[in-house]
Design a protein that fits this description.
8 helices
């Protein structure tokens, strides 16, 4: 009996730890940060935004690695610190499995808060190599039959002429500044397929209504979009049990924090991402582990 109880305790802890495991990782590349915009405070907020996706996306992405001289791939995107420049090209980037690379920069954007680009991708070589560059081990990711998505990463420009709030909580957020965490999470959403995935476009009709199965369930009907890359302005969904404007609508007012609502997550599922349960908060995990340990101890005493 003691043996079974101890095994049960260990198994419970393993379940908790597995729920906290991250399937993917987003690596930010700061080589285009020419003016030192990305301080440690800003980088911390970016990491917090990345964690929202890292903690819920369960897909297993293959590595993009060039092993043969006959295989090559190229990605091009506009300099995230100056979008007026021509394309910046990178050849044969090494992208590890379950990893995305996101180049970031900052510039005056004259009213906009951020801009995400998936980039131009080309590949040459064996059929297997080229397919891996574009699909990374996922399903059909391109064309009119696409129902899945994968990406190498992308590039994001953030406005340097905005009064940002970089706090982890909303304690100091007011209507004189914009929440950086909201914008960073929103722009990452575009790199995960909002507006960039064929599987997103394939579920939108001529009237700009989105018909994804999971989004239908979350919203209750066809979901209005802006006809391109966002839910329509003012579309509401639940976040922590309260209605808010969706994070993936076109704008967020100053002084507000809008994070991934139920509809925003449902859209990711319709794009093709495998969504796993949100991990338990660390404090709750510690409490639950202690509770299980206490219960096991009492049973042994009896």
């Amino acid at each position: 009996m003691k043996h079974k109880l101890i095994n049960g305790f260990v198994f419970s802890v393993m379940l908790i730890n597995s729920a906290m495991a991250q399937a993917i990782q987003i690596n930010f590349d700061y080589r285009y940060d020419m003016d030192g915009f990305f301080t440690e405070e800003v980088k911390s907020s970016l990491s917090q935004a990345a964690n929202f996706y890292e903690n819920i996306i369960g897909d297993q992405l293959t590595a993009i690695s060039t092993q043969s001289s006959s295989d090559s791939w190229r990605v091009g995107f506009r300099d995230p610190s100056d979008l007026s420049l021509g394309f910046q090209y990178h050849d044969n980037l090494e992208i590890e499995e379950n990893t995305l690379t996101v180049f970031v920069g900052a510039m005056d954007m004259y009213g906009s808060l951020g801009y995400a680009q998936s980039g131009y991708v080309s590949a040459n070589g064996s059929e297997e190599y080229v397919d891996n560059v574009f699909s990374r081990g996922q399903g059909v990711t391109q064309g009119e039959s696409a129902d899945d998505y994968s990406t190498w990463g992308g590039a994001i420009s953030f406005a340097s002429d905005v009064d940002w709030y970089f706090g982890a909580t909303t304690d100091g957020l007011n209507n004189t500044n914009h929440d950086f965490l909201t914008t960073a999470t929103h722009e990452l959403g575009h790199l995960f397929g909002y507006g960039s995935a064929d599987s997103w476009a394939n579920l939108m009709d001529d009237d700009g209504l989105f018909s994804g199965e999971y989004s239908l369930a979350a919203y209750g009907s066809l979901v209005p979009t802006d006809g391109a890359a966002h839910w329509a302005e003012g579309v509401l969904s639940l976040y922590e049990g309260e209605l808010q404007e969706t994070m993936m609508d076109p704008s967020t007012p100053a002084g507000e924090r809008q994070l991934l609502s139920e509809l925003d997550v449902a859209g990711l599922k319709d794009i093709g991402w495998q969504i796993q349960p949100v991990p338990l908060p660390p404090a709750f995990v510690l409490f639950l582990s202690g509770f299980i340990g206490l219960f096991a101890f009492k049973k042994r005493v009896r």
